[in-house]
Amino acid sequence: MNYDLFDDLPGHTQRLCLQEGAVLLRGFAISAIGNLLAELEKIIIAAPFRHMLTPGAHQMSVAMSNCGQVGWVSDRNGYRYAAIDPETGRAWPEMPAVFLELAQNAAAQAGFAKFLPDACLINCYVPGAKLSLHQDKDERDASAPIVSVSLGLPAVFLFGGQKRTDRPQRYRLVHGDVVVWGGAARFNFHGVAPLADGTHPLLGRRRINLTYRKTV
Ligand code: MD3
Ligand code: FE
Asked: What one-character DSSP code corresponds to residue 69?
């Protein structure tokens, strides 16, 4: 892979390769977090966090919202990307410039120039909340990576293989970490272990994760 080595990488950031195509940028979001949280507050007023239903009619323990042209939604009929928030009947809030720039800069660090996400899913975990192993395969452009930003309490990210039964590797993701998932890793099974209790100085008893996707 052709990285823009040392280009724009802040001094406090460490670049770690988790697997072929999966790059962890430790602390890459730190300098943007004040601006991110100010924008996030406005997004959540316009499109509040909600616990969606899975197609199996289970309520998810993770609360979700979105910004961007489309948002990820799930109900008894399945999951999909939708331009209208089913809870409010309005379009999702626009993706703020600071959200977009962070994702684009991170993607470039991992060798993905000109990443143009149209959706940002916002996941909110409280202690005990988890995300079961799954694949993200509803995005049409498989050449685009997914970028994720971790905020608040630390989480154990489970990173499996191509098959659900492949034993996942575990990575601890902390406040300010950014991961770019592309290439060979893009369709791997992954999830988040139940969040351990704790209190984060900025975010309190929660973890918020932003996942940027190019859906079309
Ligand atoms: C690896 N969210 O929203 S983000 C999800 O921390 C999701 O909230 C997790 O999985 C979270 O779908 C993990 C990191 C992530 C997202 C998509 C991936 C990792 C991925 C797709 C393929 C491989
Ligand atoms: Fe996922």
From this structure: S
